């Protein structure tokens, strides 16, 4: 979830803006965080942990198999 949050920040604030200084970048990031937190929403997992773990296991096996 953290990665998703940073992707949103990057796509909606950092990449779109032309920041001429670190202060301006910091100000824009802080404004975006305030806006984001105005309507907080809990993250709802849509898959049970067993499905997620099984998917990771399959992916790990594919990576292992491709290396050998």
Layout of SSEs?
Elements lengths: L1 H13 L7 H17 L10 H19 L1
Features of this protein?
mainly alpha; about 70 residues; 3 helices
Helix count, per DSSP? 3
Let me know the number of strands: 0
User: What is the straight-line distance between the termini?
Assistant: 32 Å
What is the average of the pLDDT values? 87
Strand fraction: under 5%
Written as H for each helix and E for each strand, in order along the chain, the element string is HHH
- CA-based shape: elongated
What profile does the largest beta sheet have?
Answer: none
Q: Roughly how many Å is the radius of gyration?
A: 18 Å
Number of domains: 1
Content-based structural category: mainly alpha
Query: Which stretches are low in confidence, meaning pLDDT under 50 for 5 or more residues running?
Result: none
Proportion of residues in helical segments: over 70%
Write a structural description.
Helices cover 72% and strands 0% of the residues. It is built from 3 helices and no strands. The radius of gyration is 18 Å and the shape is elongated. The model has no long low-confidence stretch (mean pLDDT 87).
């Amino acid at each position: 979830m953290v990665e998703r949050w940073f992707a949103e920040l990057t796509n909606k604030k950092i990449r779109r803006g032309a920041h001429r200084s670190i202060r301006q970048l910091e100000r824009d990031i802080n404004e975006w965080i305030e806006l984001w937190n105005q309507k907080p929403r809990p993250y709802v997992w849509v898959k049970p942990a067993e499905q997620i773990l099984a998917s990771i296991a399959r992916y790990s096996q594919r990576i292992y198999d491709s290396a050998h």
